[in-house]
Specification:
Number of strands: 0
CATH class: Mainly Alpha
Largest sheet: none
Order of helices and strands: HHHHHHHHHHHHHHHHHHH
CATH topology: Growth Hormone, Chain: A
Length: 409
């Protein structure tokens, strides 16, 4: 009797899984430094402002590379562009083993930004071509789980591996899988046809580059995310060091706590936010914006308690703040891709990335470090509460412009 045929993974699922793998490595490489700030700072005798400037180097290049790569993504096949980007950032991460001065490390940070900029633009656009608007929140919520998991693993790699085998070793260990997953993507992933899953009408404001700047659904989602990114980028780069200073933890233990909070809250918060928004969308097409508004609003009191409350409450407050902060991950990114049509989607994502980093996390780590040098790290991190307030106001205003979803999608 012949055996039943083995079930095959669909091209959409196979491509999604490989993109999740690359996104995971993307964020691991990005957050290794945050897990071992004290180790790098000690070797280079750097101030807090100088350490905060290292993420700025990454995001400056990331920000300015985004528009060019977005233009390419709307005109060329995205598969080879994704592979090239992954190879480039993995090579730059590997090059850390030859870094022996602060300014060489600064240059290395900038090189990583070029490769990661391309991936951050092309991956959501590819996923959007596999799935219709009503399903994108669910799928992108799964895709973006790689952010907290990758950040947590980056913290742990930097803190634990760096403490035992030197701060350069985590970069070597985490660079090598990037080459492997990029090769698998080239072998197994598929390139979907642009716009094959779109159901919302492609008006001029949704499908042309000039239209982006007349599209209030896109603009409010972008600038709401920019204000949120200022806070998230600054906090994520400094929170292990903050815990080390206020709680008396070692570098390794502080990174372990920060990583644990990020991975637990990231998975639970991202899945919960995507699930709530998916149910809410059945009765209210504004749900993606409204859930994001409540996510940011509920984060505010927890963040204030974390930075200015009793030191004994720092770790519980961190867990609460990160849970609420991660609720919006899938919904807000889905709001951005749903606000535009396929002909300009990669360009729209690239403009979004430029804006969220120009007004967000390109400068926030350095600003926090500079404030810390003049007062303390609590005051530096407390500055992020201002931009969280701005984010919540913009997202609430943006709800009125949410595009209605096609009931037949």
């Amino acid at each position: 009797m012949p055996e039943p045929p083995c079930p095959r993974i669909s091209p959409a699922v196979a491509t999604l899984l490989l993109l999740i793998g690359l996104n995971l490595l993307n964020y691991i490489d990005r957050y290794i430094l945050a897990g071992e700030v004290a180790l790098v700072q000690h070797e280079f005798h750097a101030s807090d402002a100088q350490m905060g400037a290292l993420p700025t180097a990454f995001f400056l290049v990331y920000m300015f590379a985004a528009p060019a790569t977005g233009w390419l993504g709307d005109r060329l096949r995205r598969k080879p562009l994704i592979i090239a980007g992954a190879m480039l950032w993995s090579l730059a991460t590997l090059a850390t083993i030859w870094v022996h001065s602060y300014w060489t490390f600064y240059l290395r940070q900038a090189m990583v930004g070029i490769g990661e900029a391309s991936f951050g633009i092309f991956a959501p656009a590819v996923i959007s071509d596999f799935y219709p608007e009503r399903d994108r929140n669910r799928i992108l919520s799964v895709f973006y789980i790689a952010i907290p998991v990758g950040a947590a693993l980056g913290y742990l790699a930097g803190g634990e591996i760096g403490s035992h085998w030197g701060w350069r070793t985590p970069f070597l260990v985490c660079a090598l899988p990037g080459f492997l997953v990029a090769a698998l993507y080239g072998w197994l992933a598929r390139e979907p046809r642009r716009g094959s899953s779109d159901h919302i009408a492609a008006t001029l404001d949704r499908s042309t580059f000039p239209g982006l700047f007349r599209n209030p659904a896109y603009l409010t989602a972008t600038f709401g995310l920019a204000m949120l990114t200022f806070a998230m980028g600054g906090i994520s780069n400094w929170i292990p060091e903050f815990l080390r200073r206020v709680s008396g933890l070692s570098t390794g233990n502080a990174s372990l706590v920060a990583g644990g909070a990020t991975v637990v809250d990231g998975i639970l918060g991202t899945l919960a936010g995507g699930w709530i928004a998916q149910i809410w969308l059945r009765t209210n097409h504004r749900a993606l914006y409204l859930l994001s508004f409540w996510s940011v609003t509920l984060t505010l009191p927890c963040g204030a308690l974390l930075f200015f409350g009793p030191h004994a409450w720092a770790i519980p407050s961190l867990f609460a703040a990160e849970f609420f902060l991660f609720l919006n991950t899938g919904p807000l990114n889905t709001a951005i891709v749903n606000s535009v049509s396929a002909p300009v989607r990669a360009t729209a994502i690239s403009v979004n990335l430029f804006c969220i980093h120009a007004f967000g996390d390109t400068f926030s780590p350095a600003i926090i470090g500079a404030i810390s040098d003049r007062s303390n790290l609590s005051m530096g991190l407390g500055s992020t509460l201002v931009t969280l307030v701005l984010s919540s106001v913009i997202l609430l205003a943006g709800a009125r412009y949410a595009p209605p979803l096609d009931e037949g999608a």
